[in-house]
Write a structure and sequence with these properties.
Helix 9 packs antiparallel against helix 10 and helix 10 crosses helix 11. The protein is an alpha/beta fold. Helix 2 links the parallel strand 1 and strand 2. The protein has a single domain, classed as TIM Barrel, CATH 3.20.20.220. About 45% of the residues are buried. It binds flavin-adenine dinucleotide.
């Protein structure tokens, strides 16, 4: 099923998992997935590694989710991909019944200055998908606090508008801990003519250093409420995780109150911690 059709009916609740490296077994992730299925997500998405590192396993993961009867969205990037590579991957997806793709540029691997493929930006990938695979449901990334390399938020939003014009069906956002900043972004994209549903990406707060690294690395802000979790519990991983889960639950509730179209939890394949968060929030039921 196309996720755009689910979004027409309801606010979605979904999970992102990341694919194991090509030389690693799939089984641990398959167990994680079966734990996540218990929360009846509307869909699962699976990351696609830059530089080709995760290619094989991404498709294997997507195939396994689809075969289990759950809806899947594959991520796909421009990194290192020629037109023939794109055609090959999406044709294989079609053969597996995978109808949803998150079209991304991807981050450049260390030492690269471009994508080293036939597409420079996500919107070029969208045009290609649209021309060659017209039935595909295409999602795109959005950045409530601006993509780190964009010259301004307005310029970044203009590119989001261009992705809409090229056939994108919905937006999945970068992590964002600042709900007020998200609210301002939502207003600005609507003023810029972006009418697409917006699914908000939630990065659970579980570990101090990785949370800081990912947030700062993506140019996102750490609001005072989150900073105080770092300040109070930063030296005690167990207390930090407990406080981080409570913070994440509060964040999800605030986003739902802000009037979003969906919540997408970046699970980092931590199904036990994510399970605690979902149970604590009751959000899986509340947003249906
Ligand atoms: P684009 O939309 O192409 O934008 C990239 C930058 O270029 C922006 O600064 C934009 O403003 C600018 N730009 C866009 N078009 C033009 C143009 N025509 N001219 C000049 N500048 C332009 N990465 C992975 O490798 N694998 C994943 O699975 C993955 N999953 C992700 C999931 C989500 C929800 C998000 C938000 C990100 C994900 N990423 C993933 C990271 C993503 O690839 C990076 O954020 C990347 O740097 C930008 O991707 P994009 O699709 O937003 O790029």
């Amino acid at each position: 099923m196309k996720i755009s059709d689910i979004l027409k009916q309801k606010r979605t609740f979904s999970f992102e998992v990341f694919a194991p490296k090509p030389d690693k077994p799939l089984e641990p992730l398959l167990s994680t997935l079966s734990e996540l299925y218990a929360f009846a997500p509307d869909f699962i998405s699976c990351t696609y590694g830059a530089g080709g590192t995760n290619k094989g396993r991404s498709l294997d993961v997507c195939a396994a989710v689809k075969a289990s009867g759950h809806e899947i969205m594959t991520h796909f990037t421009c990194i290192g991909n020629t037109r023939a590579d794109v055609r090959d991957y999406i044709t294989k997806c079609g053969g597996l019944g995978i109808e949803n793709v998150l079209a991304l540029r991807g981050d450049f691997p260390a030492g690269w200055e471009g994508t080293r493929g036939d597409f420079r930006y996500a919107d070029e990938l969208l045009s290609f998908f649209g021309a060659e695979f017209p039935g595909l449901c295409m999602a795109v990334a959005g950045y409530p606090e601006k993509h780190i390399a964009a010259e301004s938020l307005d310029a970044d939003i203009a590119r989001l508008r261009s992705k809409q014009d090229k056939g994108a069906a919905f937006v999945v956002t970068q992590l964002c801990y600042d709900v007020d900043a998200y609210g301002r972004y939502a207003e600005r994209i609507r003023r810029a003519g972006v009418t697409l549903p917006v699914v908000v990406g939630i990065m659970p707060v579980l570990f101090k250093e990785p949370t800081i690294r990912t947030t700062v690395g993506n140019g996102c802000s750490i609001p005072a409420e989150l900073a105080s979790v770092f300040g109070k519990y930063g030296d005690d991983p167990e207390s930090f995780k407990k406080a981080g889960k409570e913070y994440t639950v509060g964040l999800m509730e605030r986003f739902v109150r802000a009037g979003i179209d969906g919540l997408h939890i970046y699970t980092m394949n931590k199904h036990e911690d994510v399970g605690d968060i979902v149970r604590l929030s009751g959000i899986g039921n509340a947003i249906r």
